[in-house]
Write a structure and sequence with these properties.
By secondary structure, the chain is of the alpha/beta class. The protein contains eight helices and eleven strands. It has one domain: Acetylglutamate kinase-like (Carbamate kinase, 3-Layer(aba) Sandwich). The protein has a nine-stranded mixed sheet, sandwiched between helices. Strands 7-8 form a two-stranded antiparallel sheet. The two termini are 25 Å apart. It binds uridine-5'-diphosphate. The site of uridine-5'-diphosphate (UDP) has 23 residues, from helix 2, helix 3 and helix 5. Catalyzes the reversible phosphorylation of UMP to UDP.
């Protein structure tokens, strides 16, 4: 029995990509297996997915695009990723529901509704939140915390390429060490660049812990953490 009953899993868009594929089918299946293992432990799973494998507003603005338009494109990219995850879930018999932070018609997905989301979660469905916060100039990390608060998640799991938060970038500085725990204030003051300040501030205000961990390096990591085996870095009050 996991100590967490309901989790919000934040996946970056890049977690679905490889060098040759924007959305890689094998990587997608790996992600689905990880979701499945959490559901098998009777843990309710909400997901927020990013869009960085397709578009990021800041990068589009750098090449001259209007920032708000770029952010709209970035948020639409997250909808594409959410649909891909939902489809991959359904193919293996996991019921999934995609919700969007801004209205999208045509039966593509539902608007975010925290009550409907919570109901779906209690029925064992995976709820995939797309379009971040629904507003430009935010990130999907902030969107993840926001949705985590809305669905009353016990914790936000942020999957990254490295297995936690380090004192410096471990790919550049071999003396960097991993924090097992950190406070929100420390994370903000040290400007550790794992999540933006808005996301940390929201977590701090609502006392919602974040666990930063590496997902694809070892596909059992999330399952192990849910079983009570510590891994990654916990950022808390
Ligand atoms: N975005 C936005 N508002 C939000 C969330 C995302 O405008 O609330 C846009 C922004 O342009 C961002 C892009 O969507 O760069 C993709 O999200 P993000 O960069 O957070 O994706 P990730 O890095 O997690 O793949």
């Amino acid at each position: 029995m996991s100590k967490y009953k309901r989790i919000l899993l934040k996946l970056s868009g890049e977690a679905l990509a490889t060098n040759s594929n924007t959305i890689d089918p094998d990587t997608l299946n790996q992600v689905v297996n990880i979701i499945k293992s959490a559901l098998a432990k009777k843990v309710e799973v909400g997901i927020v997915v990013g869009g960085g494998n397709i578009f990021r507003g800041a990068a589009l603005a750098e090449v001259g695009m209007n920032r708000v338009t770029g952010d709209h494109m970035g948020m639409l990219a997250t909808v594409i990723n959410a649909l891909a995850i939902s489809d991959a879930c359904k193919r293996v018999g996991i019921d999934a529901l995609v919700m969007s932070g801004f209205p999208i018609g045509g039966g593509v997905c539902d608007p975010v509704d925290h009550n409907k989301a919570k109901q779906a979660l209690t029925e064992g469905k995976v709820v995939i939140f797309s379009a971040g916060t629904g507003s430009p100039c935010f990130t999907t990390d902030t969107g993840a915390v926001l949705r985590g608060i809305e669905i009353q998640a016990d914790i936000v799991f942020k999957a990254t390429k490295v297995d936690g938060v380090y004192t410096a970038d471990p790919t550049k500085d071999p003396s960097a060490t991993r924090y097992k725990t950190l406070s929100f204030n420390e994370a903000i003051e040290k400007n550790l660049q794992i999540m933006d300040t808005a996301a940390f501030a929201l977590c701090r205000e609502h006392n919602l812990d974040i666990c930063v961990f590496s997902m694809l390096e070892n596909p059992n990591t999330l399952s192990d953490i849910l079983d009570g085996k510590p891994s990654g870095t916990i950022v808390s009050q």
